[in-house]
Amino acid sequence: MSLTIALDAMGGDGAPEIVVDGADLARVRHPNVSFIFYGDEARLAPLVAAHSKLAAISTIQHTDIVVSGEEKPSRALRKGRGSSMGLAIDAVKKGDAQGVVSAGNTGALMAMAKLALRTLPGISRPAIATMVPTDKSECVMLDLGANIQCDERNLVEFAIMGEVFSRTVLGLAKPTIALLNVGEEDMKGHESVRQAAATLRDIDLPIEFIGFVEGDAVWSGAADVVVTDGFTGNVALKTAEGIVKMYSTFLRNAYKSSPLAMLGYFFSRRALNKMRAKLDPRRYNGAMLVGLNGIVIKSHGGTDAFGFSHAVGVAVDMIEGEFNERISEEFDHIGSFGVPTQNVASS
Amino acid sequence: MSLTIALDAMGGDGAPEIVVDGADLARVRHPNVSFIFYGDEARLAPLVAAHSKLAAISTIQHTDIVVSGEEKPSRALRKGRGSSMGLAIDAVKKGDAQGVVSAGNTGALMAMAKLALRTLPGISRPAIATMVPTDKSECVMLDLGANIQCDERNLVEFAIMGEVFSRTVLGLAKPTIALLNVGEEDMKGHESVRQAAATLRDIDLPIEFIGFVEGDAVWSGAADVVVTDGFTGNVALKTAEGIVKMYSTFLRNAYKSSPLAMLGYFFSRRALNKMRAKLDPRRYNGAMLVGLNGIVIKSHGGTDAFGFSHAVGVAVDMIEGEFNERISEEFDHIGSFGVPTQNVASS
């Protein structure tokens, strides 16, 4: 299956260089993919031309307009239509591309994608999902910040989307789903979390819901999909990033603390580099804006070409896994969930 | 100043052994402290007698009743009065001890302490606080699970209590206070968080409020006190624990992966052990139930004697720092905070 990915070539700290270099890395792993770069043609043309194989599968669509990293979503909606981000999203809407990747402003990307692409039928709110490493393998976590307040219905939708992702894109036969909470007992947590748990136990879908997990269990691989509201998810993910960074700093300082320790590092460095690669945030780059009528991937703004290529890979995997088609199939049964199909809290 | 600490000798996985051994370790560091052990005298007497110096400063108060780790707070309130936990709390209420330490059930401890000791004047809800390591030094975080839902008023109270702790117990001249949020901009996050920020900017107390911090900034030492609701705080703290455990597992596996890596470990192990000691959760053991009219410390249920001795140390520091007296002084000015003194959401 040949695919086209629309790239916001001007989003992120290292744009447009890392976007072009990242696309070139992704090209090697995904030879069936071609690219449309949206952005400043004068800057993009020589960068793309420098990679002859990439140039052969790429087109450039010029725009001067860029949504800045600090732009408020509301303002991006007003003035962002003709921006590199807006045009890349429109390419998916018009069918010129099957997915879009941007390392730009998350809030603007979500707002513009929601307006242009709309949510899939039956879904009240899209969410941001990502893969995280665990002791055992990996886990899908959502929402990570799109929805600061979530009700029961939102959490149930996130659970189903996470399950579909895990099954179709990651290929797990029977992924386990859990809700993040402050304890494992039924009575624990917010009302929305408790109600979502009751619904997930009852609904007539083949979902392997295992109940509540606490913050530490996420990283020991207690579930394949961990569902939470966007506030908690954002704090948890950033906490995880912060701790990895702190631990790495402590480790580096430990090795530097004596000549003997440095010698030890010299002998162990191959094994340590392997471990570092496993925890490399670039390998987990590519947050998925799930629930939209189109594949939209947010790359970390500070990533490099290697990280950006991973985000492109996530888009390719979701398109090839027919993620949105599977989601739509699941949500055709939405009426039988035992929760109201239309929710007052959603907008 | 000579002090007496009441110990719930039957709470936690390793009780009563680790409680007695932990008290003996704490005795060395705090020679001005004596202990009252509450629990099964037949088991406690020989354990205490085995440490002659500890025996000289200890008394045992017998009870057969133990609040189990699974007990619901409501049930603990009904049948826990005569338990080792209940009697130890009562000792503080009656003035027989200046503080209580328990490694038992957190929910039961909070519920029983709240009923017996009441909150300090002006405080609507107590919170659970703890110290966490950062890149730079340490940080106080609260709430960690006592209050699943928090309004503006609760968060402001937590901020003031955290500030007082940092200043009086840790001795920081001008501790910085931040609210945990999903971004640094004013418009980010829940309404309660945004309102609390506005109040903390305005109140007439010498508080060094620096605004919002994200989950990763906690661990880079962005603030001396980080305030959040109990749901988010609990998830963040457990996430941190989970990541440290995962990282340690990866590190151990890396060292075991080849003879060369093992040799490297051999050379570096002194430095690595120092680093491990810095991250040792036992060093941060002793969560403070702040806002109560008495010093109440919750030890981790799975800790050992070393960890328990740290929890005792936290109690001693808070008593000697006159934490509750300072809190009361601050809250005498509560009327000038610009927030209602009585809150409908509090109970």
Count of helical regions of chain A: 12
**Radius of gyration over C-alpha positions of chain A, nearest whole angstrom:** 21 Å
Contiguous low-pLDDT stretches of chain A (5 residues minimum) are 340-347
Backbone shape of chain A: globular
- The residue-averaged pLDDT of chain A reads 92
Largest interface: A-B, 61 and 61 residues
Helix content of chain A: 40-55%
The total domain count of chain A is 2
CATH superfamily of the largest domain in chain A: Isopropylmalate Dehydrogenase
Structural class of chain A: alpha/beta
Q: According to CATH, what is the class of the largest domain in chain A?
A: Alpha Beta
* Straight-line N-to-C gap of chain A: 36 Å
CATH architecture of the largest domain in chain A: 3-Layer(aba) Sandwich
Largest sheet: number of strands, sense, barrel closure of chain A = 11 strands, mixed
Name the assembly state. Answer: homodimer
Explain what the structure shows.
The structure is a homodimer. Chain A is an alpha/beta fold. Chain A folds into two domains: about 1-125 and about 290-330, Isopropylmalate Dehydrogenase (3-Layer(aba) Sandwich), CATH 3.40.718; about 125-280, Isopropylmalate Dehydrogenase, CATH 3.40.718.10. Helices cover about 45% and strands about 15% of the residues of chain A. The first copy, chain A, has helices at about 15-30, 40-50, 50-55, 75-80, 85-95, 105-115, 150-170, 190-200, 230-255, 260-280, 305-320, 325-330; strands spanning about 5-10, 35-40, 60, 100, 125-135, 140, 175-180, 210-215, 225, 285-290, 295-300. The radius of gyration of chain A is 21 Å and the shape is globular. The model of chain A is unreliable at about 340-345 (pLDDT under 50). Chains A and B meet through helix 9 and helix 10 of A and helix 9 and helix 10 of B.
